[in-house]
Amino acid sequence: MDSRTGDGTRPVARAAAGAPPAPVRIEDPADDRLLPYRDLSDAELRRRVELGGGYFVVEGKVAVAQLLRSGLQVDSLLVDTRRLAGAADLVAGVLAALAPVYVASHHVVAATVGFNLHRGIVAVARRPVPADPATVVDRAATWRGRDGGRPLVAVLEGLNDHENLGALFRNAGGFAVAAVLLDPTCADPLYRRAVRVSSGQVLRVPFARFAAWPAGLAAVRDAGFTVVALSPRTSGGRGPAADARHRAVPLGDWARSAGDGPVAVLLGAEGPGLTPVAMEAADVVVSIPMAPGVDSLNVATAAAVAFYELSGGSGRGPSPTMA
Q: Has domain 133-310 been given CATH number 3.30.930.10?
């Protein structure tokens, strides 16, 4: 008879009484233990079932390794038999956390997730409790990296492309950005594609979502941050010298003259960029000078340039973690 735990899942298999847990072989993609891994390519379905179930999916060896370092609760790990030898450290880490590891053939894994999972490694983890934006901002304001650089946060408006969002988080991790703050319309940073493209940095860099926009920017400014809108547009801001600013200032020029106080980099969605209301809420508007005929960069690329310039041209040590 199949003995189940209180939540309806089978307990972790053990080789013998008192022995450490062992991976479980799965032969059928319809096995109910694989339910959280089904139809990963159906974005709307995944958003609904993951948010409702309080979990998220992490794909790939690098991202799963970051998950294990994050302190977040791992529910299970699914590994293609072809990747098992190379994932021995991840398997050991998940089993040590007393979470089940499922091993299946390439065919079974592909039939379960709904596509050819080249990386062959995917995990399910518990969603963390949403962070309070004010708390995240206050902590970020006191963050100093290894070289004592200025505190940086990224503030995102309308960024709804998961790959752009993931790439931006990867850049934020690379340049020791203290936090990423999202408006209510931004995509879910814990969606599988965002986590994968970020190389797991979504699980490392603190983030929070504002309930109101652009009112949330007041908390950023109150914490001592200068709100710097990054845009190719010619526009002013609402800071002390708003009446004198009618055009964007070159990013490098502003970075060299701004001292070392906390800076919040305000970035908009690919295509439309920042809304007028967000631009008006900024203290200053800066732009990245480019060659004639090119009007903008991908938002994650533009963010990387801004993080580099504002961090003094180098990363500032490891970012504070979510845990």
A: no
| Distance of alpha carbon 149 from alpha carbon 172, whole angstroms | 14
**Per-domain residue ranges of the chain:** 24-126, 133-310
Q: Give the CA dihedral 214, 220, 225, 229, nearest 10 degrees.
A: -20
pLDDT in tens, 186-204: 999 999 999 999 999 999 9
| Interval 148-159: pLDDT, tens | 688 999 999 999
pLDDT band at residue 37 using 50, 70 and 90 as cut-offs: very high
- Residue 119 has a pLDDT of 85
The CATH code of domain 24-126 reads: 3.30.1330.30
Distance (Å, rounded) from C-alpha 64 to C-alpha 94?
10
**Cα–Cα dist 31/245, whole Å:** 62
Point out the least confidently predicted range of 117-121, 222-226, 251-255: 117-121
